[in-house]
Design goal:
single chain, mainly alpha, Ammonium transporter fold, four-stranded antiparallel beta sheet
Length: 491
């Protein structure tokens, strides 16, 4: 029997009981109250199931982004280092999730009871207390995928000249401590960038609560700063600035496929950050986020593609891909708080910032193989700051931008400063000792021959290599000899 029919029958019973007397009415009223409670429990269970399905699906899409990172980075390196960069991607995911289970989650979301501190969490190590609130299981998976993504960003920038053991040490600390502390600041609800005061208002140590819907700052800026510090500390690849033509991406198809995989995964990254899907409001927010996550990268990618044509004089497909990623990073913070036309502007400016930063890194000879800092660092900064400018609070979607009289910008600026200082300092404290301990940079001999041959089995990422085409010989011109003219004898 359906719940609606049960309620209808209960009402009829109340009417009958009223005619029979007070005791009958009381009994049926109690039954109706029990029925309402049962229906409420069913509704709550249904909502919980919807939220879990939504977050698991979104988490799977975010996890799938590692396939995109793997393809993009494998295509961007030279043929002889393909397996090595793929090994680092696998290492990030496996080590990262184990660290997230043991230490990362407790630091990021393990808020203490009573009066939690504003710096970091310190409970629920190794999933303790998860059985008291089983929603933590889905949150652990979803947020863990974000943590691993932030660390993967670093691997691409340092590709082709970084030792695996050195990168493993950095990955362990990044996923156990560096990233989780930043996540606690902004997303735990108790950190210094976003907590609830005694009046029940969302605030920060610098004013209003920090806004970063899906992680332009908390995820991408963290990875981008780590990438920049790592690139500087490990140094450029051998002969990178002497024979630049030898350092081209070995597979543009891999780069393009990796970009599409990442873009596809971003629809879990951004819309999934609603963290629920049981109401019409949740659905509307997810729809807006998906729309903005589509428009911004379209504008940024096209802009970079056109800019590189006019600046360099040729069509750069790799630049097109990075322009798309730049737009995705730029809109990640504000995707739920701005209108679609604002998303287009944010994506457009993000594309410009990416192009300028990419050219600047080459000018000062910082070897960032996949442009990780221009894409994730610079555009992560812009995405956070853009939310301090755009977003109308009168629209009812949570915006608080300066252009509409809001006071969000100062908080966003201070958040960028705190994240850069924290990640930059700790990354330096890790990479510099590793460098002096000879645990960071591969030797010149390894770089010359390639890490695949020197370190991996089988020694080649591809079983068969296509031999280079033989030069086509031009046919020799056929010389037609003229017959000698007959000699006329004198008469």
């Amino acid at each position: 029997m359906s719940a609606a029919l049960q309620i209808t029958l209960a009402i009829w019973c109340i009417l009958v009981a009223t005619a029979l007397g007070h005791d009958g009415c009381t009994t049926v009223a109690c039954q109706l109250a029990d029925l309402k409670k049962e229906i409420g429990d069913i509704k709550a269970d249904h909502g919980e199931a919807l939220d879990t399905i939504w977050m698991l699906l979104a988490g799977m899409l975010v996890f799938f982004m590692h396939a995109g990172f793997s393809l993009l980075e494998a295509g961007s390196v030279r043929f002889k280092n393909t397996q090595n960069i793929l090994a680092k991607n696998l290492l990030v995911v496996t080590v990262g999730f184990l660290c997230w289970y043991a230490v990362g989650w407790p630091v990021a979301y393990g808020t203490t009871d009573g009066n939690p501190n504003k710096f970091m969490g310190f409970t629920e190590f190794f999933a303790a207390r998860f059985w008291d609130d089983k929603t933590r299981f889905r949150n652990w998976f979803f947020q863990g995928a974000f943590c691993a993504t932030g660390c993967t960003i670093v691997s691409g920038s340092m590709a082709e000249r970084t030792q695996l053991k050195g990168f493993a040490i950095y990955s362990t600390i990044m996923t156990s401590f560096i990233y989780p502390v930043v996540a606690y600041w902004g997303w735990s609800g108790a950190g210094m960038l976003n907590y609830t005061n005694d009046a029940g208002e969302g605030v920060s140590a610098f004013g209003p609560g920090y806004m970063d819907f899906a992680g332009s700052g908390i995820v991408h800026l963290v990875g981008g700063v780590g990438a920049l510090v790592g690139s500087i500390c490990v140094g450029a690849r051998k002969d990178r600035w002497l024979r630049e033509e030898e350092f081209m991406a070995h597979s543009i198809p891999f780069v393009v496929l990796g970009t599409f995989f990442l873009w596809f995964g971003w629809y879990g990254f951004n819309p999934g950050s609603t963290l629920s899907m049981k109401s019409a409001s949740d659905a509307a927010t997810a729809g807006l986020v998906a729309m903005n996550t589509t428009l911004a990268p379209c504008v940024a990618g096209l802009l970079v593609f056109v800019l590189r044509f006019f600046v360099q004089g040729y069509l750069d497909v790799g630049g097109f891909c990075n322009g798309i990623l730049a737009g995705l990073v730029a809109i990640t913070a504000g995707c739920a708080f701005v209108k679609p036309w604002e998303a287009c502007i944010i994506g457009c400016i993000g594309g410009v910032f990416y192009q300028v930063a990419s050219m600047l890194l080459k000018k000062i000879k910082i070897d960032d193989v996949v442009d990780a800092f221009p894409v994730h660092g610079v555009c992560g900064i812009w995405g956070v700051l853009a939310l301090g400018l755009f977003g109308n609070k009168d629209e009812g979607i949570g915006g608080n931008g300066l252009f509409y009289g809001g006071d969000q910008l100062r908080v966003q600026v201070m958040a960028v400063v705190c994240i850069i200082a924290w990640v930059g300092l700790l990354s330096t404290l890790i990479f510099v000792p590793l460098k002096f301990a000879n645990c960071l940079r591969l030797s010149d001999a390894y770089q010359e021959k390639g890490a695949d041959i020197m370190k991996h089995s089988p020694p080649k990422a591809y079983i068969a290599e296509v031999p280079p085409p033989e030069p086509v010989k031009q046919p020799e011109p056929v010389v037609v000899e003229k017959e000698p003219e007959p000699v006329m004898s004198e008469v």
